[in-house]
Amino acid sequence: MSASEPAQAELPPGYLDLYKLAVEMADRISARRGVANTFFLTVNTGLAALLGGNELRWYVAGAGIVLCAAWWALLKSYRDLNRAKFGVILVMEQQLPAQPFGDEWNQLKKTRYRELGHVERFVPVLFALVYVAEIIRQAIG
C-alpha cells in the first residue's frame, strides 16, 4: 500500500465468515422460493387441466383459489425474508473493501428492471382468476 492510499479498517474476527453465511442463507431462501414456485405451478396447472372435465364441481376451483392464496402468501413471505437478509448484507458490505450486492442493486435501479417478486406474484393471481371464472360459469350454467 502506498502512502497516498487510505488505510483499510481491520475487520473484526469472523466478520467475513458471517458475511459469507448471510449471502449463502439469502441464496438458500431464493432456491427454496424456486422450489415452492415449481410445486404450486405444477399443482395449479393440473387443477386447471381438470377443470376441462364437465363432471367436476365448484370445489375443484375452490381448492385452486385456496392454493393460489397460499402460494401468493408464501411468495410474499419469501420476498420479505429476502429483503431483510439483503438489507443485512448491504449493511455488512459497508465494512468491506467492495460492495458487490450494493453496486449491483444501484446499477439495476438505473434500468427498467422488474423484480422477480413483482412478476412471480402475478401468476397465482392469474390462476385464481381462472378458478373464479370457472365458479361463475358453473353458477350461471
Structure report:
- The protein is mainly α and 141 residues long.
- It is built from 5 helices and no strands.
- The chain has one domain (15-140).
- Helix 1 (15-50) runs antiparallel to helix 2, helix 1 runs parallel beside helix 5 and helix 2 runs antiparallel to helix 5 (122-140).
Total helix count? 5
Rg over CA atoms: 22 Å
Uncertain runs: 1-7
Order of helices and strands: HHHHH
β-sheet strand percentage: under 5%
- Principal-axis shape equals elongated
Number of strands: 0
Class computed from helices, strands and strand pairing? mainly alpha
- Report the average pLDDT across residues: 87
How many structural domains can be distinguished in the coordinates? 1
Percentage of residues in helical conformation:
over 70%
N-end to C-end Cα span: 80 Å
